[in-house]
């Protein structure tokens, strides 16, 4: 009579093969969550496609002029009650210095693109292990902003009834905001809340401050969003509270990245393994 092999329940469970689809699904998720070296062609295509989609959706949101003006009046009254309604004073004060306001017009129209792309390039070249997660923060921030544009149409101060504010692009005839002059029909006039000038600039500032090694560069990272805040208010394109909305969207973006990667982007390894090797591979949830 042969030997009888007795299997414990644990061994029986171990002997049961896992479904192939389950293993593949877990492997795909693990692969997507693992930082890897970004590919230049893919990143250029992704960023271009993402911004085109963002612009298309933002400009497709119904303008709802009447509601946007009512919301602007409400925000203005609220800021006055809180004692922070300094937009009108700043707008008129800076507008009286021609060279300063003209410079701010060009700053508003161009620098948020230049700086944001510049930081992405810097991350791509110098911090490949943190690039995808930090880029996810930017994309999630911008995506949730679209919800704000749809749910809360808001006129910028320069379009409010009563002529309290100066539209500095129109007055000084500068090439400036897409929402002024000959370009105004190409952009949604009533998508001021939240401010992505602030969302993007604070993203740049936090990234530079957290990852730069040169002290004065880190300081400039903090100065940039502060200066951007002054510019968006002085040019009458946003209220102070629009900036708060932008920061809240950025907080959402960081939350999405932290959940997906199990860590804040800046805490991830700077480099990624090259050539597909396993040595030094990063495990999601572990810095």
Characterize this entry briefly:
It contains 11 helices and no strands.
* First and last CA, distance: 57 Å
In terms of structural class, how would the helical and strand content be classed?
mainly alpha
- Specify Rg, calculated over alpha carbons: 24 Å
* Beta-strand fraction estimate: under 5%
Count the beta strands: 0
Number of helices: 11
Unreliable parts: 275-287
**How can the largest sheet be summarized?**
none
Mean pLDDT: 82
As a percent range, the share of helical residues equals: 55-70%
Shape: globular
- Helix and strand sequence: HHHHHHHHHHH
Topology (elements, then pairings):
Elements lengths: L8 H7 L4 H14 L6 H21 L4 H18 L4 H9 L2 H29 L1 H24 L16 H5 L23 H16 L3 H20 L5 H22 L26
Helix pairs in contact: 3-7, 6-7, 6-9, 6-10, 7-9, 7-11, 9-10, 9-11
Question: Which labels suit this protein?
Answer:
287 residues, mainly alpha, disordered C terminus
Tell me about this structure.
With 287 residues, the chain is mostly helical. The protein is 64% helix and 0% strand. The chain contains 11 helices and no strands. Helix 6 packs across helix 7 and helix 9 runs antiparallel to helix 10. The protein is globular and about 60 Å long. The termini are far apart. The C terminus is likely disordered.
